[in-house]
Amino acid sequence: MPERPVPEKFLVAFSLAGEERELVQAVAQAVEDRLGRGQAFLDEWFEHYIAGDDADLKLQEIYARRCELAVVRVSGQYPWAAGPPARRESAVNHLATSGCLPVRAC
User: Fold this and answer.
1) Are the C-beta atoms of 53 and 10 separated by less than 8 Å?
2) % helix / strand / coil in the chain, to the nearest 5?
3) What is d(CA 11, CA 40) in angstroms, rounded to the nearest whole number?
């Protein structure tokens, strides 16, 4: 299958911890099916774009400025997620002030 096109701005960008990959892949695929190929970002779909020494910078740019909506699947794999409640609250507040809307999904 050909590489997905890299748009100027993604409609949705998904971020996840490794343990959540299967769940997020399914959601991301359903979203892409609805929005169109290349409109949703999932790291494994765009390895051709993010590969290299500056991958972390490219990912930060995508989640901060190059998407309309960032969907962050928070799990115990994130260092701050399993920590004390004050640390989790601080992280959630940071996400909210960064333009992310934290949503609890069970």
Assistant:
1) no
2) 45, 15, 40
3) 6
Q: Report d(CA 103, CA 85) in Å as an integer.
A: 16
* Alpha-carbon distance values, 41 to 35, 65, 82, 98, 106 (Å): 11, 13, 26, 18, 22
Q: What is the dihedral of CA 42, 1, 57, 9, to 10 degrees?
A: -70
Helices and strands in the chain: count of H runs, count of E runs: 4, 3
Sequential pLDDT tens for the chain (106 residues): 678 889 999 999 998 877 778 888 999 999 999 999 999 999 999 999 999 888 888 988 998 899 998 888 766 555 545 555 555 566 566 666 666 655 555 5
The CA-CA-CA angle for residues 48, 51, 56, to 5°, reads 130
Q: What is the largest CA-CA distance in the chain?
A: 45
